[in-house]
Specification:
Keywords: Membrane, Transmembrane, Transmembrane helix. By secondary structure, this protein is mainly alpha-helical. The relative contact order is 0.05. It contains one helix and no strands. The radius of gyration is 38 Å and the shape is elongated.
Length: 105
C-alpha cells in the first residue's frame, strides 16, 4: 500500500516544531462573480457610462475650480492668522462722562 501524502496535515506520530509544512495548493476556487448559478445571471451586460468626457475638459475644469477654492481658503486662513498675531482684540473704550457724579462706577 502506497503512502498518501500529508497535504496540509501534520505528520502522524511526530510533534511538529517550528513552522508548519503545508503542501502545494491543488486548485483555485472560482471567484464569486464568475460562479455559475441557476437563480440569476451574474455579470450581465453592463450599461453604458452616463457621463463620458473623452476630451478631459470636465476634469480640467473641476481641478482648476478645486485649486481656486483651496487657494481662497488658504488666503482666508492666513488673513485670520496674521490679524491675530499683529494686535490682540481689545474691548472698546468707555464713553466719556460729562460729569463725574452722573457716571456709574
Amino acid at each position: 500500500m502506497a503512502e498518501e501524502p500529508n497535504i496540509g496535515r501534520a505528520p502522524v506520530g511526530r510533534r511538529s516544531r517550528g513552522r508548519a509544512r503545508v503542501g502545494r495548493a491543488v486548485g483555485k476556487a472560482p471567484l464569486p462573480e464568475h460562479a455559475r448559478t441557476e437563480a440569476f445571471e451574474v455579470g450581465g451586460p453592463a450599461a453604458p457610462p452616463v457621463f463620458v468626457d473623452p476630451s478631459g475638459g470636465r476634469r480640467r475644469w473641476v481641478r482648476r475650480t478645486a485649486y481656486a477654492i483651496g487657494v481662497l481658503l488658504v488666503l482666508a486662513l492666513l488673513t485670520i492668522w496674521v490679524t491675530q498675531l499683529l494686535e490682540p482684540a481689545r474691548p472698546p473704550a468707555p464713553a466719556p462722562c460729562p460729569s463725574a457724579a452722573s457716571c456709574p462706577r
